């Protein structure tokens, strides 16, 4: 469904950015608004170092890079080389390749060898995709309970790895395109038990109130908001 964006969302997403307007004209429909919302929760600022942990094919990486206005750096990590190549091509096309470094690696190994700590880290985790069934109807039929358990373990491992890349005082955003609490709130709660050095940073400054849960997370619901379902938690690391 293609609907006009509401002024509230446009203000939050700074849609006067010429880069994003260009993307809107070319390929962003209302269904991709959640990409901007997730980036808005991270709130990239010029001069910051950002790690996008599961970056490919790169919609969020490109949008984050555009928000840096040429100052700062985005390291885009993904395990899938082919998908990372798409990201590299898109970065060149949109002339943000000078501030994006792509790294093909399993995040869980990368974190063991990387001394680099960043201001902000986005983990847009692999998920069941239950928020995007309007585009992926096949997902309805091919997921088993075992798949979900495996996915939750992977999400936990990736969260642990991503947290090791955040500076003291820095921000970790965990997002999925799922509406399943087991992949969202429950993963965050389990993470906070394992990592008491992190706490929840309420997203009220970053997205419209209509998209905020009681606990201060971003949540879009395909039925309520007419957008793809997605979730994001903004977590801050203690100094
Ligand atoms: C939800 S998609 C990311 C979408 C991307 N953030 C975007 O906006 O275009 C999840 C990504 O996680 C990557 N991935 C899965 N396991 C990984 C791992 N162990 N290390 C790094 N990346 C991984 C997949 O290759 C996939 O591209």
UniProtKB/TrEMBL annotation:
The protein's location, in the record's own words, is: Cytoplasm
Residues bound to S-adenosyl-L-methionine are: 54-60, 78, 106, 124
Question: What protein am I looking at?
Answer: SAM-dependent MTase RsmB/NOP-type domain-containing protein
PROSITE patterns given in the database record:
SAM_MT_RSMB_NOP
Task: Name the source organism.
Answer: Trapa natans
Give the lineage.
Answer: Eukaryota, Viridiplantae, Streptophyta, Embryophyta, Tracheophyta
Q: Which GO terms describe its molecular function?
A: RNA binding; RNA methyltransferase activity
Annotated GO CC locations: cytoplasm
Active site residues per record: 177 (nucleophile)
Ranges where the SAM-dependent MTase RsmB/NOP-type domain occurs: 1-238
Q: Which UniProt keywords apply?
A: Cytoplasm, Methyltransferase, RNA-binding, rRNA processing, S-adenosyl-L-methionine, Transferase
**Is-annotated flag, keyword S-adenosyl-L-methionine?**
yes
Q: Which domain of life is it from?
A: Eukaryota
Picking any one GO biological process from the record gives: rRNA processing
| Listed PANTHER family | NOL1_NOP2_SUN FAMILY PROTEIN _ ANTITERMINATION NUSB DOMAIN-CONTAINING PROTEIN, NOP2 YEAST -RELATED NOL1/NOP2/FMU SUN DOMAIN-CONTAINING
Q: Which family does it belong to?
A: Belongs to the class I-like SAM-binding methyltransferase superfamily. RsmB/NOP family.
